[in-house]
Amino acid sequence: MKFALVGAGKMGGAILTGALRAEVLTPEGVGIYHPNPERRAALSEKFGVAGLDDDAIHHAEQILIAIKPQSFERVAPLIATRNAVFISIMAGFSAEGLARRLGSRRVLRAMPNLGSRIGLSATAITSLPEASGADLAMASRLFAAVGTVYQIPEMLFNAFTGLAGSGPAFTAAVAEAMADGGVRVGFSREVAKDLVRQVLLATAHLLESDGPSGIKDMVSSPGGTAIAGIKALEQHRLRYALIDAIEQATNRAEQLSEIEE
Fold this sequence. Notes:
By secondary structure, this protein is an alpha/beta fold. The protein has helices at residues 10-21, 37-47, 72-79, 95-102, 133-144, 157-165, 167-184, 189-219, 225-235, 238-260, and strands at residues 3-6, 30-33, 50-52, 62-65, 85-88, 107-111, 121-127, 147-151. The protein contains ten helices and eight strands. 32% of the residues are buried.
């Protein structure tokens, strides 16, 4: 068994599904490990791959850890081996902390976000020096199957959480407020939500070519409606609120990392 997945919740399942679809992994080369035999059998059937028991997990060459951080201390002794490269998507545990518990220094950390569910993830990745270039390339291919991969230093992982990890929630809050504004000026809730969805979808595509400032300038004609709205946003300090939200989310990620370690 070449590749093992430990934990197959929403994020782990999305990564496995994307990697199989992109043929980065093949079903016959993948196994799922769970200490509970019944749960292991259910996951094996769901994803169409083998189920791995406590012995088989130690023969895997690459092990993706996709469990909740609070479960790691219990699971780590069951999967520890010197013969595998470990890739963790858990928040809170540094690469060094993982290496101490897993018996291997071929350790990589990755941090995908919600976009992995639809193949549009932003994923941060880093590794210990003992992980080879081939290890890093393999992990990068794995996460490229569900989005875009960013190789960043581990010291920026909490900041990545604050921006890319928490960002979908902030964007959703802005979208919800815009829909409320649409209802305020007369649209039904259903129409307002659909208009906001379409606006955000188009804006996301336009950002690729024009950038934030370019879009704002194109829409904001002299003395027009958009610049009047921009003035209101500035008066209510929208920019400050979003900057502060990312900073606060980053600070909280740092606090949680200290607790887990």
